[in-house]
Amino acid sequence: MATDQLTIRRAIDGDERALRQLWSQHAPHIDAVVRRLAGDPDLAKDIAQEVWIQIFRALPSYRGESQFGTWAHRIAVNRTLNALRRARRIAKSETEMDEEIAHEDDSAERSILAASIEEAARQLAPGARAVFMLHDVEGYTHEEIAAELGITTGGSKSQLFKARAKLRKLLAHVIDAPLSGMDRRHATHNC
């Protein structure tokens, strides 16, 4: 541990050998996390570069309260989730003009709903948001999430329960809003 702290201190001071040593020691784990979250190997490579840039930029803020690998893992997960959200937003904005015109009403409602969900998700605690995104958005199991985030399976389930409960409260105005384009009688018969 003292050797790690010395390497970290040298890296903070700008020692390139120390930076390389930290990278070579932790890259296999960090890059694997990014690959599993991203799914796409090419996207994962780009995100991993961003993650390592962020880790090295944030290095002076490392206080040693947790192991370096744990600290770097947290940065990797958060940076990867942010990059995936950004990539999804870009993909949504790249739809063809014909699709937008054909589905203008549905698209507008979906955009409002997506924006509401995204805004509500931003208000979740970081742990709850990470579990919610990994489970409900990315499709990871609680076991996979527990392994990725360094928590227990029960902790993952608890965080997801809390996230969903808070999202229900934050999105109540959307859920209770009157249905557009159809009357309530028609909607209740089809449920």
Offer a quick outline of the entry.
79% of the residues lie in helices and 0% in strands. It contains eleven helices and no strands.
How would the blueprint of this fold be written?
Elements: H1 2-12, H2 16-38, H3 41-58, H4 68-93, H5 97-102, H6 104-122, H7 126-137, H8 142-149, H9 153-170, H10 172-175, H11 184-189
Helix pairs in contact: 1-2, 2-3, 2-4, 3-4, 7-9, 8-9
Describe the fold and architecture.
The structure is a single chain. The protein has 191 residues and is an all-alpha fold. 79% of the residues lie in helices and 0% in strands. Helix 2 (16-38) packs across helix 3, helix 2 crosses helix 4 and helix 8 crosses helix 9 (153-170). The longest helix has 26 residues, at 68-93. It is elongated, with a radius of gyration of 21 Å.
